[in-house]
Amino acid sequence: METEGVETPVVAVEEPIIKPLDLPTAVQRLLKSAIYAGKLYRGLREAAKLMDRGEASLVILAEDCDEPSYVKLVEALCKQRQVPLLHIEEKKDLGEWSGLCQFDKEGNARNVVGCSCVGIKEVGTDAEAYQFISDHMRKAAQ
Fold first, then answer.
1. Residue 12, exposed/middle/buried by CB under 10 A (0-12, 13-18, 19+)?
2. pLDDT tier, 3 (very low <50, low <70, confident <90, very high otherwise)
3. pTM metric for this prediction
């Protein structure tokens, strides 16, 4: 049986919209990847030990850190060991992104603990986010 004159409807398939990366999103993705890989070190003590061993690939420091001596120590260690240092505005955001919180049923962060410094030993699986952050830091240095 032929179906002449009958048009078959064409269904348009929507392609997923890929948002361009911005710095907070890239940092979130990078930290999540490092958490899953077990290569994220939270807090000044752990990050300083990581840098002393020469194993840090990136250090993230919160700009609203309460203790100026912490900031000086982290910046000096990064400079001495030639580790890239990225500044984030708020330590509450850094604490949430590094997993120092609890999540409710809706997925909202609760009881967020601020974190002034984190060190990343290895990037993990999200190389795109690391590349974006590296390019951002390179442009900021120029």
1. exposed
2. low
3. 0.79
CA-CA distances (angstroms) from residue 100 to 51, 66, 95, 109, 116?
21, 18, 5, 9, 12
Token pair 């049923």 is found at 105
User: Phi and psi (nearest 5°) for 69?
Assistant: -70, -30
Structure tokens at 47: 């990050």
- Beta-ladder partners of 110: 102
Q: Say if residues 126 and 37 touch (Cβ distance below 8 Å).
A: no
CA–CA dist 111, 72 (Å, integer): 28
Which tokens belong to 22?
């911005």
Fold entry, domain 40-141? 60s Ribosomal Protein L30; Chain: A; (3.30.1330)
